[in-house]
Amino acid sequence: MRSKTWTSWDVTEEVYASDVNMQAYFSNDSGGTDNQQGFICRYQDDDNYYLISFGSDGYLRLGLRKNGKWEFLLDEYGGDASKIDPSFNFVQASCIGNELSLYVGGNLVAQVTDPNYTFGAGGCGGAHRWHLRRSQCYHQH
Largest CB tally within 10 Å, which of 1, 49, 66, 119? Predict the structure, then answer.
């Protein structure tokens, strides 16, 4: 999907697990910095899931949607955001136990803990001028 501005998240029912690793290549086709892209894990329904995301400007957002309302565990410029390339990134995220982690280019840039969701589906996507090149979600063995 390509357009000037959009938001799209895709959840796969193929990976429904407690512990999951996800990876994707994201490219910023517009060159702008008003964007967010990342992953969803432990998806229960549209109102209950975790979000692990970043912006090409180094903004990090890890949180949960609970009963239709957002609760952000990390919502700031921070972590090791210097590892984020403004144009193209290989990104990995994991939901292992109570820990949510975000890696960019193999480097840990953000990590939080939360006990609310223990099982669910996984997925990935982006918002505002980013293009998802390729993604893969898999169960942690």
Answer: 49
